[in-house]
């Protein structure tokens, strides 16, 4: 079992990843596809006059400030635009893809954080009216049922709060929780960078491997989205996943190459 | 088995319908929920600078002119905004709702019409680059699996072409095809009118019943959205559905009232 997460930054190659996923699905490799949609959400939010805002937590993690209106735009883009676009690509390639959010069947469940602490100009303030949370439970029943029927689940944030509210959950960590819950061997986190870089502006500084016991130290060194990917990687390994590969979605056969260990292999 | 279709015109009462659907689901009545999203799509299309256009076929049916960009906006609103909004309402009411489009698992499959004939200023012209079609097959396997697992499927256009492309399909007719394929007893078509009116501007002219053999004659008399609802009703009855009720989504207990025969009962 493989869980493949495709990020939503500008420049990710959706077509290349879908073509590879279709080939794996046709080889009957059981897999779950998780995706993001951050860049497209920013664009639509801007066009609709409610531009995206981001906050940084005291521990250094960046996240989208998700008020109710942002949540609804987020759902439009993640569940409507990106999810159905991926399902369509897979269906056109003959794969029986089924797109779901973590809200559907409460696939991804966790507590809603109605307020969060954010650092602004060096000071911590409390932000209220947030619709966010972290996946604490993956309800695998529906996924297993789909997999056994030969379908490829294509999963997207939001998740569900314990009260059934939609909550913005991080896609990398949700993919990690899904991989752990399904007992997957491998989790691929593909985006628009070659992997974990020592110098984020120099692709030649790729770390080809990170050992499990180095993860925390490396996490302290990196910034931005990579920090949360490494948190997801740590959570996946702690949940029993054997190998996490942080790799590139761009170029030929990105999924195959990541499976072959191209990128940063964490085990 | 009941199939409930909630229209997407301005003024439909989503909360009232969801509350009623939740009560039925808790009474373990097997049901499938289908929804539209036309009005919200028009608003988002306008805000994104690609306003909605509609065409009328030579036989008098109005439909959304769906070029590729319109299809993508349509998916955002139907699959992202409206679908997840309904799933969230049902989940908050304790119902295990699962939202899917007709593209997922190719639930609603039909041929893509890449061009269609439209009447404009009394003349017929051909419109190309359209992403539309009509549901010809409902793949009930996935729906049956979800129903047996105690879930309430919440279904939305688009459907899937035979090549796996997303196609804009009419929600009323898709609901009718779904009801027929699942062997449902009853199909409810709920919107923002009391039912089929003799004079569309006078609610006191409600037809409380239409016999099966009167349907075609009544269809010639009505216009706009009602024409296609009556076509859907005819298709449902021809497919073995025992009773179609065209009713109002507004007011208290709209689903219960429609089940009790309030509105226009077609059998």
Model description:
Chain A has one domain: Acetylglutamate kinase-like (Carbamate kinase, 3-Layer(aba) Sandwich). Chain A is built from eight helices and 16 strands. Chain A has helices spanning 14-26, 38-47, 68-92, 140-148, 171-181, 215-221, 224-238, 254-259, and strands spanning 2-6, 31-35, 54-56, 62-64, 97-101, 108-110, 112-120, 123-133, 137-138, 152-156, 159-161, 166-167, 186-191, 209-210, 243-248, 264-266. In chain A, the strands form four sheets. An eight-stranded mixed sheet of chain A has the order 5-10-2-1-13-15-16-14, with helices on both faces. In chain A, helix 2 crosses helix 3 and helix 5 (171-181) runs parallel beside helix 7. The mean pLDDT of chain A is 97. Chain A binds chain B through residues 44, 47-49, 72, 75-81, 83-85, 87-88, 90-94, 96-101, 103-106, 141-142, 145, 149, 151, 158, 160, 163-166, and chain B through 44, 47-49, 72, 75-81, 83-85, 87-88, 90-94, 96-101, 103-106, 141-142, 145, 149, 151, 158, 160, 163-166.
Based on the model shown, name its key terms.
36% helix, homodimer, 27% strand, eight-stranded mixed sheet, 267 residues, Carbamate kinase
CATH architecture of chain A: 3-Layer(aba) Sandwich
The average pLDDT of chain A is 97
What is the name of the CATH topology of chain A? Carbamate kinase
Low-pLDDT regions of chain A = none
Label the structural class of chain A. alpha/beta
CATH superfamily of chain A: Acetylglutamate kinase-like
Report the radius of gyration of chain A as a whole number of Å. 17 Å
Beta percentage of chain A is 25-35%
Biggest interface and which pair forms it?
A-B, 43 and 43 residues
| DSSP strand tally of chain A | 16
